[in-house]
Design goal:
With 497 residues, the protein is mostly helical. The protein has four domains: 12-84; 93-153 and 194-294, no CATH class; 310-373, no CATH class; 387-497, Alpha Horseshoe (Serine Threonine Protein Phosphatase 5, Tetratricopeptide repeat). 61% of the residues lie in helices and 0% in strands. The longest helix is centred in the middle third of the chain and has 24 residues, at 249-272. Mean pLDDT is 88; it is low at 157-191.
């Protein structure tokens, strides 16, 4: 006798959320299809599909995660497939989660490092999604500080008998807790190879900071693609074991701060090679790590970084909103240089939107703040490079976007005069902005000369952004393609190979 399948149970959780969101069945199906397109999926759901889900049918593949994301966007809170009464599946938005705890943050970012270290090409093809900015920035703004990050013992760590002590370290202390592996007779952890469970020292954190400076220099000079993969492997093999090691409260905060900086940097290098969805995920995780560090100012800087990526990709509204969240979260007590940096980032968003008055006002605020800065001010390390040269570059970019070419040329020239050759990629960008301004002013010869110089620099870098700046200039040359200076420019670029 053939056994009949068990009747399905109606999905009351999904029905309740549909009612809360105000969706019709057809409206939900349409939104799932649209979200699928963002991920290269050709989905063809309709109101009948939603009716089946409500009757208890389970959608296949990544569809549960897509449905959850549709409700997350609509209702403004993070929802999972399980919250909708659907079977769990691999989340489409993995890496964009804003973790509830420091431990969960380590799990998420560690997973990203390991996948990226494995050279998973699909990671670098993930699309950037403006909607993925909303929940993390909101959670950072309203989230409470983590009460505790210390790890006073490591689960599963091997504990030699001679390494045991009669008492454990007090919570919040940076003394070595009981159970830390030690070398026989010397009382020093074996550092030949970093493993989870080892005590984290001040030297470890100093090493993380030194590595950050090294890779930042390489990025500035040669582009994000030059040593990005080496940085990812360092994070996997050195930083993650530290985060899973043993440390007290003070050391733990400093460790999370260093990890946040390195994670932002690997996001920045991913952004520079046009792996925009991956970069977005790294920035979100850097934001969460900064919260574990208790470093509100650095979190604001991460949001400014996210704003710059959004502006570069043409999402001006999101760029402005991210900076405003950063400003609100940091407050008015920030150093003048930090305030200048944020106003300049806001101006870039307004420039992308063509909002002349708002852009000009934000630039004026940035200029006043930078003028108010004094040599003795206490400025975080990440803001110390924001100087007259960088502000002039911000002015140049904004005036270019607003098609105010004379002002753009003046500020670009000033930035190039002031900025150190060590910032090679930034100088390249500024040179292209100057070339574009000269083109807008009708000086075709000068524009092509500057453009050719920038193209030669870009050929020596591993930076997709550098190449895109040059391509943007070349698109602007199209109306003049038969002119002699343009033909000469194309010959020079062709010779670069």
């Amino acid at each position: 006798m053939t056994q009949r399948p068990a009747p399905r149970t109606p999905n009351r959780q999904l029905a309740a959320l549909i009612a809360e969101a105000g969706f019709s069945n057809a409206g939900l199906a349409r939104r799932v299809d649209q979200l699928g397109l963002e991920h290269g999926l050709d989905l063809r759901y309709d109101k009948t599909s939603v009716t089946r889900w409500l009757r208890g049918q389970q959608p296949r593949g990544t569809t549960p995660a897509l449905i959850a994301e549709v409700f997350t966007r609509r209702l403004g809170r993070r929802l999972t497939a399980q919250d909708l009464g659907l079977d769990a599946c691999a989340p489409v938005y993995a890496g964009l989660e804003y973790a509830a705890t420091p431990e969960e943050a380590v799990d998420i970012v560690g997973g990203l490092w390991r996948k990226d270290s494995g050279n998973h090409a699909e990671l670098r093809r993930i699309a950037f999604t403006p909607a993925g900015l909303v929940v993390p920035s909101r959670d950072w703004l309203i989230g409470r500080a983590d009460e505790r990050v210390a790890r006073l013992e490591a689960p599963g760590a091997r504990v030699p008998a001679q390494g045991r002590s009669s008492g454990g370290a007090a919570q919040g202390s940076d003394q070595a807790p009981a159970g830390v592996p030690r070398q026989r007779g010397r009382g020093v952890p074996n550092r030949a190879e970093r493993e989870p469970g080892q005590k984290v020292t001040a030297g470890d954190i100093a090493a993380l900071r030194s590595v950050s400076e090294l890779f930042r220099t390489l990025d500035d000079r040669y582009g994000g693609g030059h040593a990005r993969q080496a940085l990812v492997r360092y994070l996997e093999h050195e930083c993650e074991p530290m985060l899973r090691g043993v440390y007290g409260e003070q050391t733990g905060r400093r460790l999370f701060a260093a990890a946040a900086d390195l994670t932002r940097l690997v996001g920045w290098t991913s952004y520079d090679i046009a792996a925009h969805g991956l970069a977005q995920r790294y920035f979100v995780q850097a934001l969460r790590l900064s919260q574990a560090a208790g470093d509100r100012a650095y979190g604001a800087y991460v949001l400014v970084t996210m704003s710059r990526q959004a502006a570069y990709l043409g999402h001006g509204r999101e760029a402005v909103q991210l900076v405003r969240v950063a400003q609100q979260g940091l407050g008015s007590a920030a150093p003048a240089v930090v305030q200048a940096l944020m106003h300049a980032a806001e101006a870039r968003g307004h420039g992308v939107l063509g909002e002349v008055r708002a852009c000009t006002a934000a630039l004026a605020r940035a200029e006043r703040c930078l003028e108010a800065a004094r040599p003795g001010d206490e400025v975080p390390f990440w803001a110390r490079s924001f100087d007259e040269a960088e502000l002039a570059d911000e002015f140049a970019h904004c005036h270019r976007d607003l098609q105010q070419y004379r002002a753009a040329a003046q500020h670009a020239e000033r930035s190039l005069q002031l900025r150190s050759p060590a910032h090679a990629r930034s100088r390249l960008f500024c040179r292209v902005v100057l070339a574009t301004a000269r083109l807008g002013l009708g000086d075709l010869d000068q524009a092509c000369r500057l453009g050719a110089e920038a193209a030669a620099q870009a050929a020596d870098m591993r930076s997709a952004r550098a190449l895109e700046y040059v391509k943007d200039f070349e698109r602007r040359l199209e109306p003049y393609k038969d002119a002699a200076p343009v033909r000469t420019y194309r010959d020079k670029v062709a010779a670069l190979g």
